[in-house]
Amino acid sequence: MFLLVYGQSQGQTNQNEPNLNKIIPSTPETYSIFKAGDFPVDYATGKLNVSVPLYEIETKYGITIPVSLTYNTGGIKVDETSGVAGLGWTLAVPNSISIEQHGKNDLINNAVWFSSEMSNYQYNEVNLETLPVETRTKLQALADGILDTQPDIFHYNLPTISGSFVRDSDGSFHTIPYEDIKITYSETDHLFQIIDSKGIKYILKMGNSISSSTQISADYSPSSFFIEKIILPDGDEVNFKYEKQMSYQTTTHSYEDVYAPIESYELSCKPAVKDSHSTTINRYMDKLLTEIRYGDEIVKFNYKNTINGTVGRKDLNSTNLESTFALDQVIVNHSNGNVIKNYRFNHSYFGSATDTDFRKYRLKLLRIDNLLENNRYSFEYNESYTPAVWKFCSGYLGVL
Predict the structure, then answer these.
(1) Burial of 188 (C-beta count, 10 Å sphere; 0-12/13-18/19+)
(2) How many CA atoms within 13 Å lie on the side-chain side of 81?
(3) 242 and 285 Cβ atoms separated by less than 8 Å
(4) Dihedral, 35, 39, 42, 46 alpha carbons, nearest 10
(5) Chain centroid to CA 182
């Protein structure tokens, strides 16, 4: 599952053929949110989330919005890029929909075909001319890479509800497993609206995104949607702002080798023999949470672009390093100016002696200082083996 969500390797068919099995990676920041929310305590393996609670907004109707920092102990991939909190850490706020995209973007109308007829997925020697015109048209569009038959999976994590859903060919959404909520999407405004069983309404706008380009194609895809506001049954609102953004990129190398089982294969099988390599440039755009406001309560999230005296994140590949950030402070205050909580985050870098430039580094969270109560959380890590990013030394799970 990890490789599906944030796979740095994607299968590539013949360069002149559409890749119908392509899985679009999420942005590293989106992946850190998804990883913390969808892979919590696992009693079979002993994996757990370590959580540092920071604050909790309490609203009417028993709704709470917790703000915390979580660390997932399920391991770190060699290719994993740090989020703004630090490698393995996530600023955990239940405010998002994370998208696990398979093939085409399902939010584009008429781009999908999830047929309910099983015979449409079975191979047989049927004369294509005997099929209905609509079916032949869709099959041709599928072969041309215009349609796809793989539904994307949307993972939602909101204050009162969480789970997954998919979109049907007719545009309707279905939760997995079933949950009594209503989901709609506006293609004009690019907004999700989710209403839970208590009448709590969530409005989510487009958040992080990714642009992937190869030698022959380019794709743009939203990676997440973030809460813009929560509307309570009495009309009160909780408002969210995302006024910082940063961009950076990674490079993916994909290889595919296909061999005939015996030397004397039939001539018709010859096109199946391949030995191909492709390079994909993934450009990420992350929108960062800067404020949550409810009544007189204001939670502010401040970010820094200078760590250990160096401007810009040393672990990111970006053309604008001044606009790459790490989490600096979380401050909670009332509109009258009284400060309730004030946390400062101290960072450095994990280093690798085997490479230079950004691949040598990973963002490291050293400690969290509680400035009002004069105490702190400090963290130590096992750094006995930290290969450089993008090294071809990951195992099947690809973890450090």
Answers:
(1) exposed
(2) 31
(3) no
(4) 0
(5) 23
Residue 151's CB is within 10 A of a number of other CB atoms, namely 19
- 71 exposed, middle or buried (CB, 10 Å; 0-12, 13-18, 19+)? buried
What are 375-387's pLDDT values in tens digits? 999 999 988 777 7
282: left (phi over 0), alpha (psi -120 to 50) or beta: beta
CB distance 90 to 36 below 8 Å: yes
Distance CA 388, CA 359 (A): 6
3-state secondary structure of 127: coil
* CA angle centred on 204, ends 190 and 197, rounded to 5°: 120
CA distances from 240 to 133, 300, 335 (A): 48, 10, 16
Please list the alpha-helical segments (H only) found in the chain. Answer: 2-6, 28-38, 133-143
Contact 307, 51 (CB under 8 A): no
- Of the candidates 198, 223, 221, the one whose C-alpha atom is nearest the C-alpha of residue 208 is 223
pLDDT number for residue 101: 87
Task: Give the whole-angstrom CA distance, residue 374 versus residue 394.
Answer: 41
Task: Report pLDDT digits (tens) over 266-319.
Answer: 555 555 566 677 788 889 999 999 999 999 999 999 999 999 999 999 999 999
pLDDT, averaged across the chain = 81
Q: Structural domain boundaries of the chain?
A: 2-112+148-378
Does residue 54 contact residue 60 with C-beta atoms inside 8 Å? no
Half-sphere exposure for 397 (CA within 13 Å, toward CB): 5
Written as six digits, the tokens of 377 are 């959380």
C-alpha 174/C-alpha 253 separation (Å) is 35
Task: In whole angstroms, give the CA distance from residue 6 to residue 80.
Answer: 8
Cβ–Cβ < 8 Å for 208, 31 = no
Task: Return d(Cα 93, Cα 95) in angstroms, integer.
Answer: 6
Alpha-carbon radius of gyration of the chain: 23
> Which pLDDT value is given to residue 235?
96
Please, which pLDDT band fits residue 19 given cuts at 50, 70 and 90? low
Q: Which residues are bridge partners to 294 per DSSP?
A: 297
The residue among 135, 144, 109 whose CA lies nearest residue 20 is 144
Q: Is residue 319 a contact partner of residue 285, using CB atoms and an 8 Å limit? A: no
